[in-house]
Design a protein that fits this description.
Length: 104
């Protein structure tokens, strides 16, 4: 049992579905809401999936893995549009078949 976390705490990210705070929103948690990571990103465009601290830690390692950094960056409007375009859809399909990220 932990205390309520302050909203802007960089160590936590809020799940916009259940309003609880986590270090990151993983597929297992999102699945409890019946969401995939991509469902969540589409419903809450620009919503972070990791705490800011974790984003910074992983920035150099996570380039093509699970969540592209540009989707977390709320300034990257154009790239999010690309993400919803046919080219982006193809990329998402490819990602969902990733041997690690896409495993169910
Ligand atoms: Zn949740």
């Amino acid at each position: 049992m932990s205390e309520t976390v302050e909203e802007e705490n960089p160590n936590y990210v809020q799940c916009l579905i259940c309003k609880r705070y986590f270090q990151y929103l993983n597929t297992i948690h999102l699945k409890t809401h019946g969401y995939t990571t991509l469902d969540y990103m589409e419903e809450f465009p620009g919503a972070p999936l990791q705490s800011r601290v974790m984003v910074e830690e992983h920035m150099n390692q996570m380039e093509d893995y699970v969540i592209p950094q540009f989707l977390i960056d709320q300034r990257a409007e154009g790239l999010r549009e690309w993400w919803r375009s046919p080219a982006g859809l193809a990329k998402r399909k490819n990602m969902s078949e990733h041997p690690i990220a896409g495993r169910r």
